[in-house]
């Protein structure tokens, strides 16, 4: 699907056509996104806001148009709820630090799930440590599905926030976040959703979900690296203390007292990555032109096809067999170390990721060192899936 839009897919590795199946780590960029970056630096590069000159005004307009594109993409109620960051990691750190400083008291509790990326664990550990609060963990079952019934028992009157992934990067599980949000809200507990692995693969409507925060990275949705989004409901953002101090986030500064800027600028200290924000807007327009529903359906077909073929390989073990999944296949073959498999696949031109995928608690749960992970994007083909299967068989024969 739309493969020709991605110039890098014509690269050869070791003289073989690149089969890029590492999309959960980062996606490739379509020509329109590369052009948007180029155009920005060729024609309008300038610092934004408060510039009286023409380029600065143009850059500001493009930047704020991008905020509106993001608002529309996730259906936020207002652009003041869309904060630009460097990525999902920074978005979650922002919430953990600012929310923590504002609301967490000693002995309060934060709930995360057992399948979180380290980016949705460590920032909460830091906040808990700083505030004397406790981290609690919602477990998952052997299929890699969260045990939602345990959430009710985990939530107490000391619970201040629940933070869970929309989609697991290691297991591919699509979590029932509507249910999680609804349970948490019945106890007046806000919910942060880590949407890093969801935004390019299924429609997201933050108002319908009623989540309190939703965080994601641009580079996993065909946009440049170094740009991300933190969506937060106005009520929280108004109350929360700023994350970083500096230019742009202030209204008035004296040595005695500083007052903060209005939203969203209160959370955007310093010069932002303007070109990357414009690249993100272009990527969103690109996804919308292809159609997110169409992408989701196509990736599901690829997932079913590939999993079915891989399952025929003797010794194949899937890690993560949830009923609802995105195009992420984590696997092990017999007792072959994932790293060895990864290296042999690479020599056949196939880019996969191996290791713990920044989710060590998942690996601990299954008692494994890591997995081999193939993850799809809209440009992958059934032919590439066949190549993966052939390459796994070949690698297995070499290693056993
Ligand atoms: N959350 C999940 C589920 C992820 O998969 C990732 C990256 O792999 C992140 C957060 C962190 O994203 P980034 O490194 O772009 O900040």
Strand adjacency order, main sheet:
4-10-9-8-7-5-6
Supply the CATH architecture of the largest domain.
Answer: 3-Layer(aba) Sandwich
Ligand species: pyridoxal-5'-phosphate
The backbone outline, from C-alpha atoms, is: globular
CATH level 4 superfamily of the largest domain: Type I PLP-dependent aspartate aminotransferase-like (Major domain)
User: What's the story with the biggest beta sheet?
Assistant: 7 strands, mixed
Low-confidence stretches: none
Whole-number total of structural domains: 2
Fraction of residues in H or I helices: 25-40%
CATH-derived topology of the largest domain = Aspartate Aminotransferase, domain 2
In the CATH scheme, the class of the largest domain would be Alpha Beta
| Proportion of residues in extended strands | 15-25%
Tally of helical runs: 13
Task: Explain this structure.
It is a single chain. The chain has 400 residues and is of the alpha/beta class. It folds into two domains: 256 residues, Aspartate Aminotransferase, domain 2 (3-Layer(aba) Sandwich); 108 residues, Aspartate Aminotransferase, domain 1 (Alpha-Beta Complex), CATH 3.90.1150. Helices cover 40% and strands 17% of the residues. The chain is built from 13 helices and 17 strands. The protein has a seven-stranded mixed beta sheet, with helices on both faces. A four-stranded antiparallel beta sheet has the order 13-14-17-16, covered by helices on one side. Strands 1-2 form a two-stranded antiparallel ribbon. Strand 11 and strand 12 form a beta hairpin. Helix 1 packs antiparallel against helix 9. The chain starts with 11 loop residues before the first strand and ends with a helix.
């Amino acid at each position: 699907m739309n493969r020709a839009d991605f110039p890098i897919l014509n690269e050869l590795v070791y003289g073989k056509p690149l089969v890029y199946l590492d999309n959960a780590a980062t996606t490739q960029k379509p020509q329109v996104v590369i052009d948007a970056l180029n155009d920005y630096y060729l024609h309008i590069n300038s610092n934004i806001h408060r510039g009286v000159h023409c380029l600065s005004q143009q850059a500001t307009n493009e930047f704020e148009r991008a905020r509106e594109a993001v608002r529309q993409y996730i259906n936020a109620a207002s652009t003041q709820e869309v904060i630009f960051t460097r990525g999902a990691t920074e978005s979650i750190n922002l919430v953990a630090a600012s929310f923590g400083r504002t609301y967490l008291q000693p002995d309060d509790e934060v709930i995360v799930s057992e399948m979180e990326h380290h980016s949705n664990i460590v920032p909460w550990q830091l906040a808990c440590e700083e505030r004397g609060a406790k981290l609690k963990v919602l477990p998952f079952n052997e299929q890699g599905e969260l045990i939602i019934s345990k959430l009710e028992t985990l939530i107490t009157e000391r619970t201040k926030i629940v933070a869970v992934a929309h989609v697991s990067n290691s297991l591919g599980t699509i979590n029932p976040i509507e249910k999680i949000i609804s349970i948490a809200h019945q106890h007046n507990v806000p919910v942060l959703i880590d949407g890093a692995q969801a935004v390019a693969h299924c429609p997201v409507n933050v108002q319908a979900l009623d989540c309190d925060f939703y965080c994601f990275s641009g580079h996993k949705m065909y946009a440049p690296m170094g740009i991300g989004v933190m969506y937060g409901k106005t009520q929280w953002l108004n109350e929360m203390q700023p994350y970083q101090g500096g230019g742009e986030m202030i209204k008035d500064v004296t040595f005695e007292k500083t007052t903060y800027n209005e939203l969203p600028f209160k959370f955007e200290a310093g010069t932002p990555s303007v070109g990357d924000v414009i690249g993100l807007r272009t990527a969103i327009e690109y996804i919308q032109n292809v159609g997110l529903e169409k992408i989701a359906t196509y990736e599901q077909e690829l997932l079913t096809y590939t999993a079915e073929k891989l399952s025929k390989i003797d010794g194949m073990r899937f890690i993560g067999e949830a009923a609802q999944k995105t195009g992420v296949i984590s696997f092990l073959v017999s007792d072959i170390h994932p790293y060895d498999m990864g290296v042999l696949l690479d020599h056949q031109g196939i880019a996969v990721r191996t290791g713990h995928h920044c989710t060590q608690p998942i690996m601990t749960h299954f008692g494994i060192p890591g997995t081999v992970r193939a993850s799809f994007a809209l440009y992958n083909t059934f032919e590439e899936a066949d190549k993966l299967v052939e390459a796994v068989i070949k690698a297995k024969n070499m290693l056993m």
